[in-house]
Amino acid sequence: MAPKRKPFINPVDGFLILFLLLLLIQSAFNLLFDQTFTADTNAIDVVVRTSAALIFGSFLSGQDKVEIPSIQAKSTPAPMTLSSALPSENIPSGQIGFSAPMPSSSLDEVPSPPTVSEKPAVATRTRLNLSVIVVALVGLFSLILLLIVRNFTTVTPGMAATLSQLRDFVCGCIGFLVRRAREN
User: Distance between CA atoms of 24 and 129, rounded to whole angstroms?
Assistant: First the structure.
């Protein structure tokens, strides 16, 4: 069985690039064509500019991970030893509660942590990729709808709540994708 190849572009980065492309096209459209500006269209323009800056900033911040060996990762802690000697009666022991000695055999019987199987990791990875796709599609739909309303319709007060929700979707989706890009 051939080893699985990684995609050229991480899907999260691909969606962020798509969002950035749409946002930059909208910004260019606003600059090149004379349009009427209202408080409602300005609210959409703020989301466009802020989201584009957020995505661009995430790419500027150098998300490419370079593994640098850490001094702390290489150092090993000194083994901890437990003394089975009991304090003498003349020396204060500083113990609170029972002072009965523990048998030395119970110190040696430390239960090992449960092992984690590989199946949950695979299921988690599939679930995360599905959530990236769903979130990106909702964000793209919301952004396209906002841009259509911004450029081709007159915004009415009755549309304010829906437009506000779409703006929240776009900002939330981009924030989610930027966070996921940092994790990958």
Answer: 26
